[in-house]
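Example 3.2
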Amino acid sequence: MSYPNFEKMVEVIAKLRDPDGGCPWDLKQTHQSLLRFLIEEAYEYIHATEENDYQAMEEEIGDVLLQVVLHCVIADQNGKFNLESVSKILADKMIRRHPHVFVDSSLAKDDSQVKENWEKIKKLENKEKKGDYFDESYLHFPALFSANKIGKKTNKINFDWEDAGQVMYKVEEEWQELKEELASPQKDFSRIKEEMGDFLFSTAQLARHLDIDPEDALRQANKKFIRRFNSMEKLITEDSKSVEDMNQMEMDEYWDLAKRNEKGLS
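Structure, written as tokens:
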């Protein structure tokens, strides 16, 4: 197989980083300065996928690829690694973790067995690493995603609630503790922040026990809020008014109208 456009893309990005005639902005970038772009581009691709917009997906996954190649070019210029070494490590890992494809097809008959074998192979790969049950990798993700991932792992050793009903009591307990801190005459912000974190963590575990991905649930809630707010703003504009000139009570009336319209209620 030949990928001339891929090779051209790598050449283009390498030219941007060329000290002789490259782009001043690209030449200033480091692995650290580019991190936020990698995260942003990944989330933009997620959004395009959720919208089932293949044209946007094609463009956004290209932007993700740009970040990957740019990091490889920077590392190559610093003598650390390059696109070829990254490709080799990835290919070797995929072969190693898919013995049912590359060695013996009888090693896995269905996807559940594939997952089981994958976890076993990962454990063997990590056997010489630090032996903590939780390593720093569990903190590498958005906080809500991490909370869900942590809960899934504690469940494997039965350090978990038995059902969602039990978690509901824990959520209520954390909510009460948060309310107590908020009601204190001498508020301690650090304590309020801690209790808020405990409340959010327990809420994430409740979502997990209900087979709901908390990150996805919150993303959907964000979408709903924006959709409903935009509907509210449209209603306000139709009445020749502006959200900037309205108070909370006035906007609440339009918000309730937008909700009723969304639900098909008169």
